[in-house]
Specification:
It contains 2 helices and no strands. It is mainly alpha-helical.
Length: 64
């Protein structure tokens, strides 16, 4: 039963550290945009990986 006097303060300290870390990360902008990093990989620039003979032909007035 004496261990409860040790476990309750440790639990309170851990919870307060977790709450502080959450509010710090919100303040730093960690949760501002959750969608863009997941979609950014789909629009990765792979032009240098495509062989020259497999690339589509570009019009003269368009830049590659």
């Amino acid at each position: 039963m004496d261990i409860i006097y040790l476990l309750i303060p440790i639990a309170i300290i851990l919870v307060s550290v977790a709450i502080w870390a959450f509010f710090w990360s919100v303040k730093q902008g960690q949760f501002d945009d959750l969608e863009s990093p997941a979609h950014r990989i789909l629009f990765d620039d792979d032009d240098d990986l495509i062989p020259e003979d497999a690339k589509p032909e570009q019009d003269a007035d368009k830049k590659p």
